[in-house]
Amino acid sequence: MNGPWFVRAVGDGDTHRAETEHWTTDGRAHIRPICDATTLFTALNRRPVAVPYYDDHRCPDCLAATRKPTASRRRRLAVVR
Ligand SMILES: [Zn+2]
Question: What domain of life (predicted)?
Fold first, then answer.
């Protein structure tokens, strides 16, 4: 999954990827992050961020969760002789 990032707080590790996004009519995003879908926060950014400017801002748990290969992405290799 390569979804956008949403800022909960300016600081290291507090920019998350969304498990779910809910946009209000005034343009605010309510986000349940991948790292903890039981919490809800209102993103500081009003536009999703494809790549955070500083690597340190990315939540390490969201980053790890989105790097795991899924069954559909996993390549299967075969040896043919
Ligand atoms: Zn996170």
Answer: Bacteria
Q: For 22-33, write each residue's pLDDT tens digit.
A: 999 999 999 999
Residue 29 confidence (pLDDT): 96
CA-CA distance, 16 to 62, in Å (whole number)? Answer: 6
Strand 15-23 and strand 5-7: the pairing is antiparallel
What residue spans define the domains of the chain?
5-67
The rounded Å distance from CA 7 to ligand 1 centre is 10
- Which residues have their alpha-adjacent CB atom under 5 A from ion ligand 1? 16, 33, 35, 59, 61-62
